[in-house]
Specification:
alpha+beta, endopeptidase fold (from Nostoc punctiforme), 7 strands, 28% helix
Length: 246
């Protein structure tokens, strides 16, 4: 079992709320309604897919949930400044385990990939979606990301990719990497660069073991922690239409 602390909160955070889609709107239209209009801080996109890789990732994160049910989430993405004129063109940074253009040679960027938000447009492919606004210093986050790409000693995300692919593809006897405190690569990257800016993203879990589920739980249940440490809590919204398990 993964070593994770539970929050003592009995009510979810008021600033991170469930918000369903309107009619048949896609993920971009949903995001247009829920993206923060604040000019400071950074935004994270949470998504939960429904293909085989997403199933494996969501089931692996059951170790983070008290009832051992699968997570709603399979990936997290760091957004650059949203392009309000054309949201799909907003640049994103991530470490995807199934990049649209293939992996290429990732060591020079420590696994970090760049793309656009439009790749998460489909509500059929990505039925679960959440947006988080973190009130931290954006300049420090982006400086930390540049350092992250060039210093694998901080966190070797290239190694994490290989380890997680072995598990997801059922290679040999590879077990769930989370049980060895090896986080899902994109979440571990986000945790590292946000932490370098002085913001604690998952108070209940070791940073290197970060995963989308832990990020969602922190936003939903740890608002008292942020109040006690004079830090603004994550805010935003989420929509879950695809559930696994019970």
């Amino acid at each position: 079992m993964l070593n994770i602390l539970r929050s003592n909160a009995t009510e979810p955070a008021a600033g991170f709320t469930e918000a369903g889609r309107r009619g048949g709107e896609n993920n971009m239209r949903w995001l247009e309604r829920h993206l923060s209009q604040s000019g400071s801080g950074v935004d994270l996109l949470l998504v939960g897919g429904r293909d085989a890789m997403a199933y494996r990732l969501r089931n692996a994160q059951a170790q983070v949930r008290h009832d051992l049910s699968p997570s709603h989430w399979s990936h997290v993405v760091l957004l650059e400044t949203p392009d309000t004129a054309r949201l799909e063109a907003t640049a994103v940074c991530e470490i995807s385990l199934q990049p649209a253009g293939g992996f290429g040679f990732l060591p020079p960027t420590n696994g970090v990939q760049r793309g656009t938000l439009g790749q998460y447009r489909s509500a059929r492919v990505w039925p679960n979606i959440g947006i988080l606004h973190l009130p931290c210093d954006a300049a420090q986050v982006w400086n930390a990301l540049r350092d992250f790409e060039q210093q694998r000693a901080v966190l070797d995300a290239t190694e994490l990719i290989v380890i997680w692919l072995a598990f997801l593809w059922g290679a040999g006897r590879t077990g769930n990497p989370l049980l060895d405190a090896r986080g899902i690569p994109s979440a571990a990257m986000v945790e590292t660069v946000v932490g370098a800016a002085g913001y604690e993203l998952t108070p209940g879990l070791e940073n290197r073991a970060s995963c989308p589920e832990a990020i969602w739980q922190a936003a939903k249940w740890w608002s008292a922690f942020y109040a006690e440490h004079d830090a603004g809590p994550p805010t935003g919204a989420w929509c879950v239409t695809h559930r696994l398990g019970w």
